[in-house]
Each structure stands twice: as structure tokens, then as C-alpha cells.
């Protein structure tokens, strides 16, 4: 791979792909160094850079972290899934194996070894992306990038030194997001006792009592990790339920399963203050019920602040360039991810409207570069982007919730099937949860699918594919699914929409 050390070196000049068209040639002379510069090397940025290079565009990717993969790979999706998997295995060995007649005595956990394994996985994957950059001839520039003018990205190298200016025809902004602070300043993250998700992924021992401020995806996943390993976990949530965007029926069932695992919830509650006792002692949270105003306190030894994320737009030169942000700090773009003032500057992923999901950013990055190369229209269907919560059991969804359909006045049908009636789930002893399918009453078109149960994150792909092609529940319900498999639960839920399921009365 070309590790760009900001030496004065230019790429050999190659002709533009024919698909670039006359408009691109008018915008910028053919003597510029790059066809595309991507600012940010997370899932959206690095995927866009690789795809652009594959399509023949001279491409550079600027990343200030010093490692590719962004938050997702380095301090988010991947390390959290590694810890979720390891902590679940520990829980199984220490308690769940007994129901299968397997006795494992003296099970213990080695947190430093777990962290080492997690770090090894992350390191291997980041190196893998660098290898992909090398093979696809993507220029990897280690530094902080910002817009200097409409066709120039200015890079400040990680180790200091002189800046370099990269001339380019097109720019994709893909700098992702960062953990949002608690509004009001009641908690100040120190990554020791009061931690962000980054700190929660790197704890060196199991907390006695972990307080999670925020009942969203990040808080529930990381809370589950440390609960599996033996910590007492209390979730403090401002709203009156976990993850308000969930289908209510699925959300309630999910909450009950988490409570069954020992996770406690304090709803309609906000943190108004905190006190520490000693350098490594207790943290006391001062709480207030947002409905009654009643005050209370919660003592713990570690606090995870997981109140969401915000777009990372600092020091990108947006204001100087006249690029608009909305009231939530997101870059305003059109349906092709182009900023409103400059058609050749695009923004993707967490920087723009929509769910903050790695796979959403990837699809947007690919759509942008395919449009540049004349291979596509540059749009992404956001209504078929799935979301997954990787607790155990997992929760996955795509499309509309039942509440959304009611609010929109849509006539719909509901089909549901419990994993307790699925033979594969029963055989593996993992039968909590259900599959729920929502369809248009008149056309039978699938409008939403929600899965709470084992391997939900894998099962949802079939539903996404069906919705991409506008399938009806009968289309899925009449497809032969292998037996015994978990996927039969989706088939039977679909049968509940257009006919009747077989294995429940």
C-alpha cells in the first residue's frame, strides 16, 4: 500500500474514465491529481475509496485516526461484538450448560486475555483494509483532512509538520460521528469511572455495579457484556421505554428478556448530578423522575454514558465553504448525497440524515462513486436498511413498525410466530422471542419485519431482500425453507399474514 508520508509526489496521469462525462471535465481540468478524495476511513469512507479505485478513479483516502475502519472497527461494532460473544460463552459455561447435562466446574474469566483477543481481531481487520487499499491502488494518507476550497483537501499529518493540499475533482466527506455528551454537564467522561462506549470496551475488570445512562443500542449491548460477566447493571433512561423507535410489541418483549437476565431499568429518569468518592471509589448519581420530579440516588462504581452520537463535523471547513448543517448538526444533502452548494462534494454515513449504521454508510459510499463513474443513479433506499441489536437474544428489524402504520392510516395485517414453536430453536435450547411480519391488507406487500430471537441479525437478510423486490408475504411463505432451521419461523410468520401458520394454533 502507498502510505502517503506527505512527500511531494504526484500520481502518474491517466485518462479519465469515459463515463465521467463532459460536465466533470468542465468542472475541473484533466491535469488534477485525483478524481476523488475521501475524507474519513470508516466503513463508508474506505468502502467508497475501494469501489472508486475498482471503477478506475484515481482515489485517495484521508484518515486521521492512524488506523482504518473508523469507530465501527476500532472502538464500536467489531470490538463490542467480540466482547458480546465472549461474555455470552462465559455465561453459557457458568450456568446455561447445566440444562444440557454438561458440567463445567470452576469457570473463571480472564478480562485482560479477553481484551487481548478483542484487540487482536481489531488489529487484523484494520491491517486487512490496508491490504485492500494496496491491492486496489488507493492512496492512504494519514492525517486530518479539511476543505480548503471547492476542489482542494488540506491535510495536516498525524505526526505534525507541513500541510499538504490535494487537488481533486470530487470529494466525499465520511468522517462519521462521536459519542454525544450528556446534556447539562451532569456527567463528565474521564474514561475511568465515568466512561464512554470506548472506555466501556476497555475495562480491565468486571465492575461491581455498572450504571448505564441511556437505554439505546450501545447502552444495552455494552450493559449486556458486563452483565454476562457478573456485574450488576442498571439502565437509566430518560424516555418511558427502551429504544423508542422499536415496534412496541417487540420492544416490550425485548425488555422482559433483558430483565429476566438481571438488567434493571429506571425509566422516565434523568441524571442531574454526580459525585465521586475517592479516585477509584464509588460514583453516586443524583437522579430525578421527569414525570413526578421525585429525587433519588444510585450508587455504582462505573458509569457508562451512552446517550447517542453526533456527527463529527468539526474542523472540516464546512462553514467557510458555505455548506449547510441542519438543527441536529448533520450536513444537508440531496437524494444523491450531494451538498446543496457543490454537486461534486458529497457527504455520507453518520454525517447526514438517517440511521447511524455502518452498512448504511457503505451503501451510500458505493452509490456515490457508482454515480461518478456512470454506473448508477447515486441513490440509496433507506426504507430497506436493516437494524440489529446484538444482545442475546438478538433483535433485528426492517421497514415499518405497527405504530407507524397506524399513524399513517395504512390498513395492514399482522403475522407472528414464536421461536418456542420452532423445532431448531427448541433443540438448541434457545427459543426466546418471536418473528413479526406486517403487510399491506390489500396487496399483501411486506411493509415491516421484526425478529427477536436467536440469530436475528442473520435472519433479517431474507426479509430485506424480499422488501427490496417488493415481495408479498405469500412469496416468502410459499418458499421451501430447510427443516429444521430458524428461518422457518419467518416463513410461518408470513403464513400468518396471508393464510394460517402450521405449527401454532
UniProtKB/TrEMBL annotation:
<dbReference type="InterPro" id="IPR016156">
    <property type="entry name" value="FAD/NAD-linked_Rdtase_dimer_sf"/>
</dbReference>
<dbReference type="InterPro" id="IPR004099">
    <property type="entry name" value="Pyr_nucl-diS_OxRdtase_dimer"/>
</dbReference>
<dbReference type="Pfam" id="PF07992">
    <property type="entry name" value="Pyr_redox_2"/>
</dbReference>
<dbReference type="InterPro" id="IPR050151">
    <property type="entry name" value="Class-I_Pyr_Nuc-Dis_Oxidored"/>
</dbReference>
<feature type="domain" description="Pyridine nucleotide-disulphide oxidoreductase dimerisation">
    <location>
        <begin position="385"/>
        <end position="493"/>
    </location>
</feature>
<feature type="binding site">
    <location>
        <begin position="356"/>
        <end position="359"/>
    </location>
    <ligand>
        <name>FAD</name>
    </ligand>
</feature>
<feature type="binding site">
    <location>
        <position position="237"/>
    </location>
    <ligand>
        <name>NAD(+)</name>
    </ligand>
</feature>
<feature type="binding site">
    <location>
        <position position="81"/>
    </location>
    <ligand>
        <name>FAD</name>
    </ligand>
</feature>
<dbReference type="InterPro" id="IPR023753">
    <property type="entry name" value="FAD/NAD-binding_dom"/>
</dbReference>
<keyword id="KW-1015">Disulfide bond</keyword>
<keyword id="KW-0274">FAD</keyword>
<feature type="binding site">
    <location>
        <position position="145"/>
    </location>
    <ligand>
        <name>FAD</name>
    </ligand>
</feature>
<dbReference type="GO" id="GO:0006103">
    <property type="term" value="P:2-oxoglutarate metabolic process"/>
</dbReference>
<keyword id="KW-0520">NAD</keyword>
<dbReference type="InterPro" id="IPR001100">
    <property type="entry name" value="Pyr_nuc-diS_OxRdtase"/>
</dbReference>
<protein>
    <recommendedName>
        <fullName>Dihydrolipoyl dehydrogenase</fullName>
        <ecNumber>1.8.1.4</ecNumber>
    </recommendedName>
</protein>
<keyword id="KW-0547">Nucleotide-binding</keyword>
<dbReference type="GO" id="GO:0050660">
    <property type="term" value="F:flavin adenine dinucleotide binding"/>
</dbReference>
<feature type="domain" description="FAD/NAD(P)-binding">
    <location>
        <begin position="34"/>
        <end position="365"/>
    </location>
</feature>
<keyword id="KW-0285">Flavoprotein</keyword>
<dbReference type="Pfam" id="PF02852">
    <property type="entry name" value="Pyr_redox_dim"/>
</dbReference>
<feature type="disulfide bond" description="Redox-active">
    <location>
        <begin position="72"/>
        <end position="77"/>
    </location>
</feature>
<feature type="binding site">
    <location>
        <begin position="214"/>
        <end position="221"/>
    </location>
    <ligand>
        <name>NAD(+)</name>
    </ligand>
</feature>
<feature type="binding site">
    <location>
        <position position="350"/>
    </location>
    <ligand>
        <name>FAD</name>
    </ligand>
</feature>
<feature type="binding site">
    <location>
        <position position="308"/>
    </location>
    <ligand>
        <name>NAD(+)</name>
    </ligand>
</feature>
<feature type="active site" description="Proton acceptor">
    <location>
        <position position="483"/>
    </location>
</feature>
<dbReference type="InterPro" id="IPR006258">
    <property type="entry name" value="Lipoamide_DH"/>
</dbReference>
<dbReference type="InterPro" id="IPR012999">
    <property type="entry name" value="Pyr_OxRdtase_I_AS"/>
</dbReference>
<keyword id="KW-0560">Oxidoreductase</keyword>
<comment type="similarity">
    <text>Belongs to the class-I pyridine nucleotide-disulfide oxidoreductase family.</text>
</comment>
<dbReference type="GO" id="GO:0045252">
    <property type="term" value="C:oxoglutarate dehydrogenase complex"/>
</dbReference>
<keyword id="KW-0676">Redox-active center</keyword>
<dbReference type="GO" id="GO:0005739">
    <property type="term" value="C:mitochondrion"/>
</dbReference>
<feature type="binding site">
    <location>
        <begin position="175"/>
        <end position="177"/>
    </location>
    <ligand>
        <name>FAD</name>
    </ligand>
</feature>
<dbReference type="InterPro" id="IPR036188">
    <property type="entry name" value="FAD/NAD-bd_sf"/>
</dbReference>
<dbReference type="GO" id="GO:0004148">
    <property type="term" value="F:dihydrolipoyl dehydrogenase (NADH) activity"/>
</dbReference>
Amino acid at each position: 500500500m502507498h502510505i502517503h508520508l506527505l512527500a511531494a509526489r504526484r500520481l502518474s496521469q491517466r485518462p479519465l474514465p469515459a463515463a465521467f462525462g463532459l460536465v466533470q471535465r468542465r468542472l475541473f481540468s484533466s491535469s488534477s491529481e485525483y478524481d476523488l478524495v475521501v475524507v474519513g476511513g470508516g466503513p463508508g469512507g474506505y468502502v467508497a475509496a475501494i469501489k472508486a479505485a475498482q471503477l478506475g478513479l484515481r482515489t485517495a483516502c484521508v484518515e486521521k485516526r492512524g488506523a482504518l475502519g473508523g469507530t465501527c472497527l476500532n472502538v464500536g461494532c467489531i470490538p463490542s461484538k467480540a466482547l458480546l460473544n465472549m461474555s455470552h460463552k462465559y455465561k453459557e459455561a457458568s450456568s446455561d450448560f447445566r440444562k444440557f447435562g454438561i458440567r463445567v466446574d470452576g469457570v473463571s474469566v480472564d478480562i485482560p486475555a479477553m481484551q487481548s483477543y478483542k484487540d487482536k481481531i481489531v488489529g487484523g481487520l484494520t491491517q486487512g483494509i490496508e491490504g485492500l487499499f494496496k491491492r486496489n491502488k488507493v492512496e492512504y494518507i494519514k492525517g486530518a483532512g479539511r476543505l480548503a476550497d471547492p476542489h482542494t483537501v488540506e491535510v495536516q499529518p498525524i505526526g505534525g509538520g507541513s500541510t499538504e493540499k490535494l487537488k481533486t475533482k470530487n470529494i466525499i466527506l465520511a468522517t462519521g460521528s462521536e459519542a454525544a455528551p450528556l446534556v447539562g454537564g451532569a456527567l463528565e467522561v474521564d474514561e475511568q469511572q465515568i466512561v464512554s462506549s470506548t472506555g466501556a470496551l476497555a475495562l480491565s475488570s468486571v465492575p461491581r455495579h455498572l450504571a448505564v445512562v441511556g437505554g439505546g443500542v450501545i447502552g444495552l449491548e455494552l450493559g449486556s457484556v458486563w452483565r454476562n460477566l457478573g456485574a450488576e447493571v442498571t439502565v437509566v433512561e430518560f424516555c418511558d421505554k427502551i429504544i423508542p423507535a422499536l415496534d412496541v410489541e417487540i420492544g416490550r418483549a425485548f425488555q422482559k428478556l433483558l430483565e429476566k437476565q438481571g438488567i434493571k431499568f429506571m425509566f422516565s429518569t434523568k441524571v442531574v448530578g454526580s459525585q465521586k468518592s475517592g479516585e477509584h471509589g464509588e460514583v453516586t448519581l443524583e437522579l430525578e423522575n421527569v414525570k413526578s420530579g421525585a429525587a433519588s440516588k444510585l450508587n455504582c462504581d462505573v458509569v457508562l454514558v451512552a446517550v447517542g452520537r453526533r456527527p463529527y463535523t468539526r474542523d472540516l471547513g464546512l462553514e467557510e465553504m458555505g455548506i449547510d448543517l441542519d438543527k441536529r448538526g448533520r450536513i444537508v444533502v440531496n437524494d444523491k448525497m450531494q451538498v446543496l452548494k457543490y454537486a461534486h462534494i458529497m457527504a455520507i454515513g453518520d454525517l447526514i440524515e438517517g440511521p447511524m449504521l455502518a452498512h448504511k454508510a457503505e451503501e451510500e459510499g458505493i452509490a456515490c462513486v457508482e454515480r461518478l463513474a456512470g454506473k448508477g443513479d447515486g441513490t440509496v433506499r433507506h426504507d430497506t436498511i436493516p437494524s440489529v441489536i446484538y444482545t442475546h437474544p438478538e433483535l433485528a428489524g426492517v421497514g415499518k413498525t405497527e405504530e407507524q402504520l397506524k399513524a399513517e392510516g395504512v390498513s395492514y395485517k399482522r403475522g407472528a410466530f414464536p421461536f418456542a414453536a420452532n423445532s431448531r430453536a427448541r433443540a438448541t435450547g434457545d427459543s426466546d422471542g418471536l418473528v413479526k411480519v406486517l403487510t399491506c391488507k390489500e396487496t399483501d406487500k411486506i411493509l415491516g419485519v421484526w425478529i427477536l430471537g436467536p440469530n436475528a441479525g442473520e435472519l433479517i437478510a431474507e426479509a430485506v431482500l424480499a422488501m427490496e423486490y417488493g415481495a408479498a408475504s405469500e412469496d416468502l411463505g410459499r418458499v421451501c425453507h430447510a427443516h429444521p432451521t430458524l428461518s422457518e419461523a419467518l416463513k410461518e410468520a408470513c403464513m400468518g399474514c396471508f393464510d394460517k401458520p402450521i405449527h401454532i394454533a
